[in-house]
Amino acid sequence: MRALVTGGGGFTGRQLCAVLRARGHEVWAAGHDAEHAVDFRLVELVAELFTEARPEVVFHLAASSHAADLQRGPADVQTENVVHPLLNVLECAGEARVVIASSAVVYGRGPTTEDAPMRPVDLYGAARASAEAMAQRHVQRGGDVVIARATGITGPGQTRRFLLAGWAHRYGAGERRFGTGNLDLQRDYIDVRDVADAYVLLAERGERGAVYNLCSGEARPLREHFALLCPGTESTDALEPTRELPVLAASPARAEALGWRRHYALEQTLAELRQSYLPSP
After folding, report:
1. How many domains does one find in the chain?
2. Is there a domain that residue 250 lies in?
3. Sign of CA pseudo-dihedral 74, 76, 80, 81
4. φ, ψ for residue 208 (rounded to 5)?
5. What does the pLDDT average to over 142-147?
6. Fewest CB atoms within 10 Å of the CB: 3, 38, 71, 253?
7. Does residue 226 lie within any of the structural domains?
8. Cα-based distances in Å from 77 to 68, 91, 192
9. What is the CATH number of the domain that holds 6?
10. pTM of the entire structure?
């Protein structure tokens, strides 16, 4: 297939491009820090990219995946960084299939399946839900879209701006006592390599207009993640009330019915993440 990966210079984008190329597909990696530098908020640049790349499949990852980047800004920041890039991609996609990387935060509270309504509780979730609604309108007008909702993505190579990678960085720097945030929150993290495999599978077999959760199906307290990732380390944070979702979990049954299987257990993923931040011998 001739594939365009928006956000191709990001953590998941780089992994996805590697998987596609290893399988013999022609790949255009576009976006910030990618081979083809494109600002997806500018429709004229997006149109030029599509004219040149002529993709059969678009993997749309070009939006901030770091929720804190968006939570700090007003609603129009969410629109500019999540909704507008997708709008421009859909406008230029033509007959290409578009696999959209969304997030399980659109569900709001509680474990759930894809049939549950979207009830986001924060600006980031609301922006993702708005983008999904726009994608479904594209489907109603004849477009080809598949939506992937991941609960949490991590793995070796992730930047330390993200929670688990930030812990791994501090551990690798020799710190054995530092702040972590609320470790009683329950999260379901999966390996970026399994996510990349899922995106390709959805491009090949996903049902037009359908939504697929990407997760393990088991949310575990961040306390367990911390113990696995940073053995012998103490958190200095006192337990305080938080407005974050206490549990972020979902069912992967629909993706598994397509044939998706995870190959990386959490323990292996976190061990490799920790190793990637340890000093070289």
Report:
1. 1
2. no
3. positive
4. -55, 130
5. 98
6. 253
7. no
8. 12, 21, 27
9. 3.40.50.720
10. 0.94
